[in-house]
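Known limitations

Structure tokens in this collection are predictions and should be treated as such. Users comparing against experimental data should check residue numbering before alignment. To illustrate the layout, the record for Cytosine deaminase is reproduced below. The input appears on top and the generated tokens appear beneath it.
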Amino acid sequence: MAFELIVKNASLPDGRAGQDIAVADGRIAAVEPGIGAEARRVIDAAGRLVAPPFVDCHFHMDATLSLGLPRMNQSGTLLEGIALWGELKPLLTHDAVIERALRYCDLAVSQGLLAVRSHVDVCDDRLLAVEALIEVRERVKPYLDLQLVAFPQDGYYRSPTAVRNLERALDLGVDVVGGIPHFERTMADGAASVRALCEIAAARGLLVDLHCDESDDPLSRHIETLAAETVRLGLQGRVAGSHLTSMHSMDNYYVSKLLPLMKEAGVAAIANPLINITLQGRHDTYPRRRGLTRIPEMRALGIPVALGQDCCMDPWYGLGDADMLDVANMAVHAVPMTSREAIRWSFEAVTTVPASILGLEGYGLDVGCNADFVLLQAADPIEAVRLRAQRLAVVRRGKVIAEAPARIATLALEGRPARVDAADYAPRASA
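Generated tokens:
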């Protein structure tokens, strides 16, 4: 039997080495050592890691690559970023949003990032960004899964037309119900918005992903309401709370009550390390809080935790390059969580965990899964995070859609090697 593609001598995230991966009809047909069949193309992985594609479960594609428009965020704060976005929204055009989003998707594909959940602001009565990203979703469908969240950036109740606009966006085909309860005028309004948004999702059979408690205020406790509404409405397994940064300031006694509620409700958590550590704690002098939610504690309890990128060169964050290994690497440093097990988990937090949160079908490296995977210049997941490894090949439905040369440095030092590959520095037992 002739296959479309065979990747030879691959290491897999689960620790198996010397594996061949054969592809037929856009799906994985075999994963085993020594596949002897012919293929239209053969790639020698040379013992390097082959992993399922990266997944970003929290992003804002309507704002991406807009850095400096109409001005820069001088304070670096979340609130100035929101104000800046408010200044930019009236200036947006349909074509400009599409062009920036498509350029970002090009960058994402080059990084092996083939699935993105993007929040899209519905507080512009034109729903310009919604319509633009729905078009982008269709245009990139052959090579990237784009899931859209109806996001009332200015507050579901605080913005005069957000209630109506959110329903309009869902009617247009937006996939997920979003919200931002901590940005409502009062805590009571925030809790009411959580209830209303969850009821909409329950009635429509949709997923829920709320920006929740993205604050340094320990009394911002909307995740508690979100967990309760999830149970009340039978939404278990369909709900995510994003950011949850107020949890870094909560007292331990309250958290000891809160986390079991999340676990009972089956609510997933999405932390955004790059953004959380730069936007939070801005009012602190010293000691200064790190700004991340309680990732180790949630993991220990069995709450699904994923890592998102959130922003890339926009009013909130002037850095970023669609690199989910950068996100994982930052989480390892910022939490901190430097055990070998935790570093390995950080790789899962940008692959398999967010894929589950998005409900991606056919994701993984098992026989029968979609032939979507990435060849990395690293020996294993821990090394991939350490190196933020080069993506040597990106495969979508069995077709190589992006390639890059290995990162190799040449040296001109007497008595020393002529070349250096950082991937060769892996410890003998990095797992």
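For this record: The chain has a mean pLDDT of 97. The chain is about 35% helix and 20% strand. Please report discrepancies through the issue tracker.
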